[in-house]
Predict the 3D structure of the following.
Amino acid sequence: MKLLIIARPFVFHGGVERATVGLVTALVEHGYDVHLLSLRGQAPVRGVRLHTLWLPPLPSAARVLALAMNARLAVRRGTWDVVQSHERTLCQDVYRAGEGCHRAYLSSLERPRARGLYHRIVLALERRVFARTPSIVAIADAGRREIETLYGVAPERVTVVYNGVDLERFHPLNRTKYRETARAEAGIAPGAFTVLFVGSGFARKGLATTIAAFAALSDRESRLVVLGRGDAQEYRSGAARLGVGERIAWLGARADPERWYAAADIVVLPSRYEPFGNVHLEALASGVPVVASASAGGAEVIADGINGAVVNPTDVAGITAALERFRDRSADDLAQAARRSAEPFTYAAQVGGFARIYSRFTHATCDFP
């Protein structure tokens, strides 16, 4: 089957990017003729034919519209069995709603933004995508419900296909390989209880709430490690005001997250909006429990009290209580429970979910005239 995937470049390997690389690579391994339509800057992917999507420098509002229109023109120049888009475009048989619903994201904001031109264009594209795309893929059951409720999409058009995770790269054995050296690099004592926050987009991912919950911990020797892209200045200032600035390691964006899962005792991710969050699977695969937001699709893989906890993303006291509960638990027992919960989420299982969707198509049926 000749498959075209439309996706923005995944050059920096953050959680979303790692998930996309894993899916694309697994599709190739399962015999699909995979073509990738992406913007300039996309690194080669073994076994994948890369097609460059031209896009001039534009303001954000014009850029999102130009991407949709230029993708449509590019798709029309080829012949495909199935066109799958990970972006809000106008020419796909399958839309993977990896970003969830922009409408729901805007509603989740603590201070809702004015609906400027950019947001109006994204919402208009989103309405068209959900109205006209034959098959919609949600990455969690929460996303499926959201799409059906907010946009009136018939249940038979929406399928849940969970992300996969690299179970070899993210493994409990990394604790033996990396824990000591990673902690030394971050200036963390060998026995210090260590909380890990991983995520770019600090406001949406709940970094301020994480810091406040960490500051309330009774263990004053505990440490917090922050990984991710973003302007950390206001969060550093907030940590200093709470008296925990010296107990936080700010590591920025890293290409070696497996070392930091190995260094951590627990991951905290109180996102205000998160369609899934591959950090959940990476942490669990690494044998690390997760304090997850009830607003995140990733909460669906958390069994409260066993491999983590599910909390209200704004409940500082609830997050602190969850950290206290896990602080004295057996690390080996937690690692086993976490790892078991991640093992069903393979890339092969993800490809199997998409294969069942692809089997409905005999040729591309894009929604342009």
Remarks:
- The radius of gyration is 21 Å.
- The chain has two domains: 2-164+347-358, 174-342.
- The longest helix spans residues 60-76.
- The CA atoms of residues 75 and 192 lie 54 Å apart.
